[in-house]
Protein: Glyceraldehyde-3-phosphate dehydrogenase
Organism: Halorubrum hochstenium ATCC 700873
Amino acid sequence: MGVNGYGTIGKRVADAVAAQPDMELVGVTKASPDYGVEAAARRGYDLYAAVDDRADEFAAAGVDLTGTLGDLLDAVDVIVDCAPSGVGERNAPVYEAHDTPAIFQGGEDAAVAEASFNARGCFEAARDADAVRVVSCNTTALSRLLAPLDEAYGVEKARVTLVRRGGDPSETDRGPINDIVPDPATVPSHHGPDVNEILPDLAVDTAALKAPVTGMHTHSVNVTLETEPDESGVRDLLGDEDRIFLVPEGAGIDGAGALKEYAADAGRPRSDLWENCVWEESISVTGRDLYLFQNVHQEADVVPENVDAIRAMTTDVDAPESMARTNETLGVGLRSRLGNDELGRAELAADD
Amino acid sequence: MGVNGYGTIGKRVADAVAAQPDMELVGVTKASPDYGVEAAARRGYDLYAAVDDRADEFAAAGVDLTGTLGDLLDAVDVIVDCAPSGVGERNAPVYEAHDTPAIFQGGEDAAVAEASFNARGCFEAARDADAVRVVSCNTTALSRLLAPLDEAYGVEKARVTLVRRGGDPSETDRGPINDIVPDPATVPSHHGPDVNEILPDLAVDTAALKAPVTGMHTHSVNVTLETEPDESGVRDLLGDEDRIFLVPEGAGIDGAGALKEYAADAGRPRSDLWENCVWEESISVTGRDLYLFQNVHQEADVVPENVDAIRAMTTDVDAPESMARTNETLGVGLRSRLGNDELGRAELAADD
């Protein structure tokens, strides 16, 4: 495998691929020799220039290249495109010219690939495709949440307000500062239709804002279900999903800051949260209306999905087996032993 | 009339009362001689000590007092309590002891008063009451929005996510910084039941977050209506409400910052937005589901409601007449001549 674009998503996907016993990371590309090349070098990843005529810049910066993008494409079974939004579409003809199957990210239009992908929602869609698009962080999180709810209760209609982070922590040119911006101001946003690329028959309306935060997206979710759930049933259902982390009541985790702190304390690389983080306390039911809040780590939640997409395209491993391998190798499946019951706290004290 | 607590809300209510030809502002109280006393003095308002045994502090700061709270209570027909949340409840027995009818703010529990009040929703509820509570900024805005929708289409169920400002611009001790916090983490929040103090039969579920902004609250609103609306009908309906400002498409107003700038340019005192600010572009309908975004200026939108509450308690003026007088004297009813049609722009160019 290769990764084209060793940036926010690319460096995480590269590490995740390198951690799979059944995959080999051949190399990664960068467009310019910035601080990212040091991270790649420390990990021993072979580096390729993403743009042929900028290879000189790397030499000038004292960075050794193994080759350029074309060399990487000829050496891999699948290229994972982690270029900035919109650049993937421009790369697509290059991948085709080298006859290299490609995985794109959710910043691209769905039309860039034969199939959109979420492991929980539509693993088999990637099976015979030469080009697959792993949907965006928000669509990934909504698919993971809505798929089990639809299976267990039937979704009559989902209505979600996405309060999006303005930019990632390293994106110093993003806004807003001290404002909440309807983005887009029109409703519904594109996120609902994007969920339908994964779950075609599910009725979902989304409205999106952006806020002056960098840590995570926050979703305020309403789902009108076809059959009336009870809260403990929903908690159990979601708690059984490895890619959903139920944030326990009483653990003192009140927002993205504490969630990232929790992930860092758990030894997660880059404090990554690969799971949807659903506040257990927020899960509530009135009639057939389910409400909850979930947080989404925009830099991380698509990473295991990229690994599964590679397996779906290149092997005959099925969805449960692929997801289990990915979860096991990365350590996906954060579980808290904190809770409101005495037993949970006692166990924690004994173990730690 | 008197105002007990010349703070964020109190100073605005005092100015609004002073602007009414049919009302007289006798004076205002402050708990301590901070910068607020200068604003009161500049306007020529008589100042009273809110707490008897702290009158010395004012003398020490060189501030002349007309008297203390008790003196003010004996001189007025109605006292408007604008004390911090929770302090109003402690003041209630004092008002009763002086036999002075009182208006409380929405930070108090509904039980503090005989009736909760919103001019558009339940003006007559205050008619014979000795104690009235003007509901909070968020409840005020939701009542103004849902009352006309319920009258025109019938509300089957409203579901609202409130993304609240963390603190007012002057509140330097508030958070969050760089985080979005479910607040409360449990759903539904208290806002829905508070709307039912105004509109008792309306089904409304609310979920609340707080964000690192100071300017305004943002509401992401879904209303399932009993009859199917069309978007232009909803725009016309809301556009006819004087206390709703339809933020025009194409005016370049993308958030609270630009809204406040617009208000400042319009000559509004303190850049106040007394109206709900509904993004015209966001009004959308799918089947019987209406969606929209609205912004709420937490420091200002209850101000005209306080004026109307005074009139409801002390006169036999009816709701439309009182609201018209308040709107006229304050200048409530922001209208933009910007729009997407050529005519609107031409008129603006000719006038300004």
Summary: Chain A has two domains: 2-135+303-330, 137-301. Confidence is low (pLDDT under 50) at residues 340-352 of chain A. The longest strand of chain A covers residues 155-165.
